[in-house]
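re: ur question from yesterday

yeah so i grabbed the chain u mentioned. its 452 aa long if i counted rite. heres the sequnce exactly as i have it in my notes:
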Amino acid sequence: MIFKLILFFYYFIEIVSIVYLNYCQKYDVILLLLVTLFTFILNDKFNPKWYQKKIKYVSAPFIYSILIQLFFGLVFFKWGNSSEVIFPIIFGNFIFEMILLFVFYRKMTLNHKISLVNSYNQTILEIDDAESKQQSTKNQIANITSENIIDFSKEHLSNDLIRIENIALNNWYYINSKFQAHYHKLSPGGFLIVKFKSRNQVINRLKNQFFGKSLSFIKIFVHDVLAKIPYLSKLINWIIKGKNKLLSEIEVKGRVYYNGFKIEKQFLVENEIYLILRKVNSISDNPSPSFHLITNLNRVSMFGNIIKIRKIRSMYPYSEFLQKDVFESNQLDTSGKFNDDPRITGIGKFIRKYWIDEIPQFFELLSGKIKLVGIRAMSEHYFSLYSDDYKQLYYQVKPGIISPIFDDNCPFSEIERIEKEYLISYIESPLRTDVKYFFKTILKILKGTRSK
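ran it thru and got these structure tokens back, copy pasting raw so excuse formatting
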């Protein structure tokens, strides 16, 4: 907090001084202020990454910042009368920032507590299946089939162990809120029966109508693009009154797990999918599950700290909550990826192949969360597959964008070996190692190597 206040006060005094003393032309002052503000937002300099411990990592956003300011300075000020004032100001600001960083560096990094992979894990509820009422409910659920589930839903009254929701999920105004309302009314181990129409069923039926292809395109654009943009998503939901949402099976299952349930049974009846869910976990406290086109994902970083990494979403919404299940059912292929991962969308396969989904990570680079070359920041589940000695090396090095692994035919054991080799080499000689792997990876890319 003190760091932020000093930085803010310094820039405030500088701005007042420039304006009051009339150091340079008015429009050049405005441009300088805009560039300074732009770099503060882009580099997130008010929030140094103290958890990274090493000064070269913590100072990275400030170094990127002066490079950006110099670039803008050369573009906008090289022919102006103010260049002899602007460039000393830029360099002076950088020197002040670095002095301030060094003053706070030791205290802030020593006081920062290491949090070894501590994030939004859901806890398993204690369920007494031996209790007679619980056992009776389980027997009732066990007897439900696709032939009698509709009658069961109509006849059965909701209680603290079984709740019935006859309105399709597609018409729930706020899906998570409604799930959680049922969750809180159920005892641990209780069951919830819901239904929905999958997006494929809705689109296929729409295509058979007059002007069906045009209507389906409009519906997909509204629900998959406009409704996935922050703030606009709420407006779209209000306009359609929460009705007729397009929901993929993957998104529904992800939301089920997110809200503390698991799927016990699944039936397809009269073009609707019925799910029998059981309350088994706590509700996730993850404040930003993947939903929007650009999504923030939890990734393991230095010393086990969990950071947010932005990506263009290539999977269905809420897919991250199914990762463990996908791993257990599909395992890994020869490239260390999940076999036939059903969470990846059709367009997602394309944007992954050409790394379009990685574009927002350049903002993470400029903010200092990651570096240019290095092992990709991993999800907690994927990180858990590695050996303990690998993890101890990983904790010492900032994650990167350009990975030392770009071979689709490389098995997981080989991936771990190569990445471990990179980590050991980087710890011994950082600059030489990153230069070596940068050109090595670029050559692979130029030869046509692509991600899955």
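noticed a couple things. Residues 83-111 form the longest helix (29 residues). also The chain has a mean pLDDT of 86.
anyway ttyl
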